[in-house]
């Protein structure tokens, strides 16, 4: 119950923050910088959060799950990324589309990996990965 | 103002719905079906919504933007997709990781394209793409 409520509150904060970042970085160059930045930051934070067990073990479960699933989950977006890519492809901006797609995908995996690595290095117990 | 408020409300609904879908489809098989389904549906809906102009022209702007940016944006998630992929790679489940990655990426682009296509075919004015 507390978990569900926490997810709703954090989703509200995460989704609104995404909108504010988008407003602060208008797409003037044709390259969707705002979505890229949002998704890369979100990947790093979620990966860190779900592996920094030594730190988060002291937090209420509603907070860690609310922050991860609700907050970071609502902050990042796959649908906007995909629709933006299709729009670039439809507009025959092949180079920008390819750059956007690979920066998001490879950058996202790299940031996730970095999040896991730093959390394991400094903020985790020696536990086996489930 | 109304736009910002609408985005917040819809983000709340979108993020909570993602959690509920995840709860209804527990990851028993090792393949993240819930995230895949959420992201594919979200891509189709957002693409449709942002191109179905004949229909949405009659809606208040706060509703279309709230639903798209807030609702569908918070429903889909790039961070969970990326962290799940890194987890599969770290666990050396190469085949599942490759299948998940390509199903999400190609499926997402296909669903976005389908959303654009159906909206243009039936629910749009004959307008030039911006």
TrEMBL record, chains A, B:
Where does the sequence pass through the membrane? 32-50, 62-82, 94-116
Recorded catalytic reaction(s): these are: fluoride(in) = fluoride(out)
Q: Which Pfam families match?
A: CRCB
Primary role: Fluoride-specific ion channel. Important for reducing fluoride concentration in the cell, thus reducing its toxicity.
Q: Which UniProt keywords apply?
A: Cell membrane, Ion channel, Ion transport, Membrane, Metal-binding, Sodium, Transmembrane, Transmembrane helix, Transport
In Swiss-Prot or TrEMBL terms, this protein is called: Fluoride-specific ion channel FluC
Q: Where does Na(+) bind?
A: 73, 76
């Amino acid at each position: 119950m507390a978990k569900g409520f926490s997810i709703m509150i954090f989703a509200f904060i995460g989704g609104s923050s995404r909108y504010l970042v988008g407003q602060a970085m208008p797409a003037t160059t044709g390259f969707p910088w705002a979505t890229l930045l949002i998704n890369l930051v979100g990947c790093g934070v979620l990966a860190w959060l779900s592996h920094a067990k030594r730190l988060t073990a002291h937090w209420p479960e509603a907070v860690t799950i609310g922050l991860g699933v609700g907050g970071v989950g609502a902050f990042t977006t796959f649908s906007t990324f995909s629709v933006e890519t299709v729009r670039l492809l439809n507009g025959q901006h092949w180079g920008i589309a390819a750059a956007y797609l690979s920066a998001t995908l490879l950058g996202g995996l790299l940031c996730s990996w970095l999040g896991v690595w730093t959390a394991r290095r400094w903020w985790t117990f020696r536990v086996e990965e489930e």
